[in-house]
Amino acid sequence: MSTPFYVSPQQQMADRAEYARKGIARGRSLVVLQFADGIVFVGENPSRALHKFSEIYDRIGFAAAGKYNEYENLRIGGVRYADLRGYTYDRDDVTARGLANVYAQTLGTIFSSAAEKPYEVELVVAEVGETLEGDQLYRLPHDGSIVDEHGSVAVGGNAEQISSYLDQRHRDGMTLAEALKLAVQALSRDTNGSEREIPAERLEVAVLDRTRPQKRKFKRIGGRQLSRLLGAQGDGGAEETASEDAEDSE
């Protein structure tokens, strides 16, 4: 009778983590930034049907890098959780912190289970507050841990280099145009230090805008509005886009 092959639990977890990281690294990076009036999501995504960013609830947005079918399942589960909790209790009881805890439990259970492979995803859950201090950003890696972020966060294949670039240049109180340009500059940097151009039509951009009069603060930005923002100087670009809120909102 042959002796079963033994692998230590530590080595198993290390192998599963490496597998998940390699899967996430194959996807394009994305960034989430705070600005004066809310939170902006920016990523390179040539598809107009498969979104990296989505609305979960009134003030809560979702961003994901990695395997689409896996993070889409998580997004749908988050929407169901938020709808059920808001209907059962109160809309104000649906928070990014609660949603992040649910995702952490799900990802942690899958990661530690020997019966299935770990999810190749990295998530960001964001909630816009009444003020800048009330904003919440949570990053959830593949293993289900939760990282409370402030200012900016990057996930995906080149996240470490992008995060370092953003940490040096991001500041509180930036306009939407300034935050958007900084995000594109960060995403344009390759691992070897060179820069490439990302055309506006290859960008997916969304915001949680605290100044919107509607209860739902999430909206997508694209087309002429995005082009004007990328070419705007100072506050002028953000002021121009305010009048287009109804046109470009979902």
From TrEMBL:
It is found in: Cytoplasm. It comes from the Bacteria. Pathway: Protein degradation; proteasomal Pup-dependent pathway. SUPFAM superfamilies: N-terminal nucleophile aminohydrolases (Ntn hydrolases). InterPro entries: Ntn_hydrolases_N, Proteasome_alpha, Proteasome_alpha-type, Proteasome_asu_bac, Proteasome_sua/b. Residues 228-250 are annotated as: Disordered. The formation of the proteasomal ATPase ARC-20S proteasome complex, likely via the docking of the C-termini of ARC into the intersubunit pockets in the alpha-rings, may trigger opening of the gate for substrate entry. Interconversion between the open-gate and close-gate conformations leads to a dynamic regulation of the 20S proteasome proteolysis activity. One of its GO terms (molecular function) is hydrolase activity. Residues 237-250 have a biased composition (Acidic residues). Transmembrane segments: none annotated. One of its GO terms (cellular component) is proteasome complex. Keywords: Cytoplasm, Hydrolase, Proteasome. NCBIfam families: 20S_bact_alpha (TIGR03691). The 20S proteasome core is composed of 14 alpha and 14 beta subunits that assemble into four stacked heptameric rings, resulting in a barrel-shaped structure. The two inner rings, each composed of seven catalytic beta subunits, are sandwiched by two outer rings, each composed of seven alpha subunits. The catalytic chamber with the active sites is on the inside of the barrel. Has a gated structure, the ends of the cylinder being occluded by the N-termini of the alpha-subunits. Is capped by the proteasome-associated ATPase, ARC. Belongs to the peptidase T1A family. Component of the proteasome core, a large protease complex with broad specificity involved in protein degradation. This is Proteasome subunit alpha. It comes from Streptomyces violaceus (Streptomyces venezuelae). The lineage of its organism: Bacteria, Bacillati, Actinomycetota, Actinomycetes, Kitasatosporales.
